[in-house]
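Reopening this one. Same input as before:
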Amino acid sequence: MRIHQLKEILQLNKLKIPSQQLKKGQIIQGQVIKIYPENKVQIQLGGLRLVAQLQASLTTGKYYYFQVMQADELLKLKALGNEALNANQLLQQLSLKMATNQAELVQQLTKEQISFNREQLQQAFEYMSQYKDKQVQVFMPIMKELIANEWPITEQTTKALHMQKNYPFATQLQKLLHMLPKDSNFSMLRGHLSDLLQPTAENIANSQNQMGKLLSLRNKQVFSLIQSLLDGQDLYSSNTINNLKHYITNNQWFIQNADQILKKWESKLLLTAANQYMFSDDEVSQLKQDVTKVFPTIFAKNVGNGGDFGGLLVQLRALQKSQTYEQLEQIITFSQKFLLTEPKEQFLQLTKRFLQLSGISHENLLVKGESPPTTIKSQLISMLQQTKGGLGEQLQQVLHHLHAVQLSSVQDFDNGFLQAYLQIPALKLGLTNDMEIKFEGKKTETNKLDPNHCRIVFYLELTNIKETVVDMHVQNRNISIHVFNDHIQSRTLPMQFQPLLKKGLKEMNYHLSSISFFALHQGKKAKKVAFNAQSYQGVDYRI
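Same output, byte for byte:
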């Protein structure tokens, strides 16, 4: 499940201030609350109660489909039918052709109380008609989001949201970075991508220094083993840490396989290392096959460098022991600590650099008549005109992703409501993929987000506790926090950092009123958890 699909869990659309005024032609479903004289009725539309003029025979308490006929000082509605009216009948009234997928889209829109108009449905149907049934199901939630936000339904917007919902941004940027040729034409883009994805030289140097001290106090064979497992990868990068975690997480499987390899080859490896036996070519080939099937790099790293069968034996024996994996975990924890020095500052720096380098304000600057700086987006646009094949496709994929971030980055509504969204590749911070942040709340007189009354939602993919949503409500500077996660231990997550959080918020004149924990996915019981829970190891990130 992608983190973008959590809006229903958080019920963002139902809890927020209405994002738009009703417009002529829109179709909505509402409940009749009261009937007044002179053909006026009070109708409940989601969180709104409105009085409208309506010439129809209605029943109090029932739900009806309405079409907005006039939306100025006097709201006039046309009743299309009651809740028994099915999607096919509604499409007939709108003079639209019927199809199974089209009816399903209408059913979902009305069920989720998303208003729509005939033109939006027609555009969505035309786009969906290009695809077969299975593909249509993929694009169904995208059509709903485009309609709900009144965004244009085009190939560009549809592909942008498709990329955002199904492919992590960080992964796409990494893939592009690895595909870029080494020549000077791509040097600036490589530099910008590296800036967003990789730790700074200062952090790496600090980590290397501390790592060296650590390894000098421990078994240096572990350091050699890490180099063999990673086959020349940067020892201090986030990618390396994630690769090593794969060995730690699946340590029992690796221990069993190392044990099987040694049962078959240990005696001959010992004799060969002591120059008392010589492997035949067939034996070397079979040994290589057995080892690389489980540990892809250590055979080439040892035997490929002068035939060091003794070194291979030592490393296989190490991989056979559970203590080795415990040492790996200690080293990773230590390394991450120094890679993530002052995470608050790193988070702020990364956010600023993303805003500067990504180019999400590219079109806005052009509209203002300003010349946009050279950004990732401007380079992608330029390179696409002269790049074909796989690289060209990857350039387009990243560009689609940037378009998706732009679509929902800032929405400034007339009713005093502001909404902002950021999706930041967070590998540089030690997180697995992306960090998504959504802000919404009232606007101040200077058109900024009101810090006294707002809502901030963090969408995180964390290394230890996986998919996590932190939903923070600010009301009159009182903060309540809801944490959504399916990790078993997160239900009893300790509040060992709660005093620190309360203190930090108090220094900024905020008051922490509550923290609650809930299951993330449907079907799992959402349980509220008290403050004084058990201790928990493996906190991924703190700001």
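So the earlier flakiness isn't reproducible anymore. For the record, The longest helix spans residues 251-273.
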